[in-house]
Amino acid sequence: MRSVLLKSDIMTxxxxxxxxxxPWLIAxxxxxxxxxxxxxxxxxxxxLIQAGASVNNVAALLAERLRDTDSAVQKQLLARLGEVxxxxxxxxxxxxxxxxxxxxxxxxxxxxxxxxxxxxxxxTALYNLPSKPTYAAVALKLRKEGFDTATDSRVTRYLKSLPxxxxxxxxxxxxxxxxxxxxxxxxPRTLEQIKVGDIYAGDGHTSDCYVAxxxxxxxxxxxxxxxxxIRSRYVPGWYLSESxxxxxxxxxxxxxxxxxxxxxxxxxxxxxxxxxAKMLNDQATGFYARFEMDVIGALPxxxxxxxxxxxxxxxVRDHHxxxxxxxxxxxxxxMAAEVNRRLSVEVRSGKRRLPSLAEYMxxxxxxxxxxxxxxxxxxxxxxxxxxxxxxxxxxxxxxAEAIVRPREKRTVRRQxxxxxxxQYYAAELALYDGKSLTIEYDLHDDRTVWLYxxxxxxxxxxxxxxxxxxxxxxxxxxxxxxxxxxxVKRLERKADEARARAQDSITVDEQLxxxxxLNVQPVxxxxxxxxxIVIDLLDNE
Length: 541
Description:
Elements: H1 23-26, H2 29-50, H3 55-67, H4 72-81, H5 87-100, H6 120-127, H7 135-144, H8 152-160, H9 171-174, H10 176-183, E1 199-206, E2 211-212, E3 219-220, E4 223-229, E5 237-241, H11 246-260, E6 266-269, H12 273-276, H13 278-281, H14 287-290, E7 294-297, H15 307-321, H16 343-348, H17 357-372, H18 384-388, H19 400-403, E8 407-411, E9 416-419, E10 422-425, E11 436-441, E12 448-452, E13 458-467, H20 475-502, H21 508-513, E14 523-525, E15 534-536
Parallel strand pairs: 1-6, 6-7
Antiparallel strand pairs: 1-4, 2-3, 4-5, 8-11, 9-10, 10-13, 11-12, 12-13, 14-15
Helix pairs in contact: 2-3, 2-4, 2-5, 3-5, 6-7, 7-8
């Protein structure tokens, strides 16, 4: 029995009938040329009709003149048309021109008309499944459903003739979001009004190379956080870390700020946790607000929004990671699978040596320097460094150490403030008891903090007096310890799940207890002439 086509299989009402409804525009060039030739032949007759003559008389007169014509022009027109038109043909042309103008002279011949087999709509629905079945698979499915005329060649020709909205890259096959990114219109952007250094685009990317972890020596892919100036394509700051985080963003951006003593007006970032953390995004104490940098948030799932930095990461992959250490430790999806299939085993056995993180960092720094001094077509043959040279600096003013100090709000109690399970004391805080102050702290050394009032005026420097519990001196060490505890908890949950799965969820005894009572005799009758063949599975008498 043929399956019924559900309305949910395909929305045919969403398919445009034609891209343009003007018959003259959608006609082929050959059809338009033929219409022009016909008009030149009947042109004198059209004038007679406009003067009051009848169509029949004009058609008969034109047919007689064309048969006995001595005009070289008319002979050439007849030769291009291929034959001398009859009276009825001339009447049809004259009437068509009176109704629709030159459109009425277009040839109505459409060539061989395709036969409708009845499975076309079902074939379209099957082909537009997100599982992306092939032409042959659709044809086989149709034949299984009872459409015997659905041969591979017929189904293939039909599916290839479908419009793009129902074809190989239709929204139903590739997904609406991906179709929008790749096949629908987009908003072009211009950088003419933007100056060098106005906008940085930043993002994180896991390197496509294996290196030795600094602590364990095992396989490790460092996280590269970078910022690129979208006007000059220059990369002013970058940072390698173990994973994307707010700290990696601070360090990468601080690298750019310290190196070139410049603050961008805007930062083009995605909406990930590494860029939207309170340390960075808080309106009062955040890193962005502190240096008066506005954040432009890219739309989720839209890599084209920050295509400058995404394209740069691809450049790093194609021109650095694929050649680093002889290309033997590249781990992109296009790497030869057999090369690194047993990499971890070979590293542990000493057969292969992983390059160190320091080697990768030095190689990457050299590559970024080369990139910044490579001429580009998009820059009219200039290098990013040459365009960056026109930078009008917006000075940072602060010292290098102060740039990377995060800030938070705290309330003064008894001449002390508490931050991250640490208490800090200063005699000057007696004047601010009960008031909220901004604390600026060092990520590497927790012995001292700097305090500022609501107008960002320096109040005092407070020293640590005691800690609550056991905390490391460096806040970075504290973050690493938190990360380690999280990793251990995740591994413990994974181990618990593995132990649970090792237990039989359904035992043999349970299966036997729930077996149905076999009181029906399953019989297979091949329905052959005569007595036939009967197989009694229960061997009953």
